[in-house]
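Recap from last week: sequence in, structure out.
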Amino acid sequence: YMASLLSPVLRRFSTLYPHVEIEIVCAQSVALGPMLADNKIDLAFVTRDCKLRGEFVRAEEMVWVGSATDPAPLAMSPLPVGLYEHGSVARAHTVAALDAAHIRYRAAYSSASLMGLLATVEAGIAIVALTRCSVPPRFAMLGEAHGLPKIEPLEIVVARSVKSNRPTCDYLAQQMVQDLSVPRQRG
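Predicted structure tokens:
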């Protein structure tokens, strides 16, 4: 979420607090949760799961992504799918959607890295499910018209460590919630 959502918040924060050092840790939510629990980081903008709670910010739609120039994976059986690492909510939602739709698929690639998953799409060897905010314009968004099921959205939260009770942390968390919130959709 760093590149697509947090840049304006960080820009404003650094203007107001120019002498505060921010260490940015870009990692999957499954890695950030233990870092919060161990007080190694103060705040995390993460996907909510059963172990990782926080203040709700937004629901992020999951979409299927394929190569804009090579639709070959869509014709393959079983469907080659690139998945986030085991333990991630995005992976669980993707697999649940495929299973519920009775689509034969194979976990062709697995990566904790968005860039790793995008490389499989770029190569035309798999499709992946990503948050809409993470899809580069050069890729094709796929959906029900392509025989693919809807995927449950991800709930994005701001989670805090127990030692993050400082004014600068309060401000940054408040700005994340305020600037990045979108109303929950009822479904």
